[in-house]
Write a structure and sequence with these properties.
62 residues; 0% strand
Amino acid sequence: MTQRDMAGLLGITTVTIRNWRKEKPKLYEIVMKGFAFEEAVKKAQQNADELKELEESFKAKK
């Protein structure tokens, strides 16, 4: 996800994100970790869905 994407989701400008990075590094870190966490959850859900599909396809072949 780009800074532009993140800014859009947060309802701020990319300049604000850059300012946070310089002037409020803890806030910037928390926001970035939040986005990373959200992305990790999405990937985990996709992996779980793929595993379920594999399980179902193996059951169908029995």
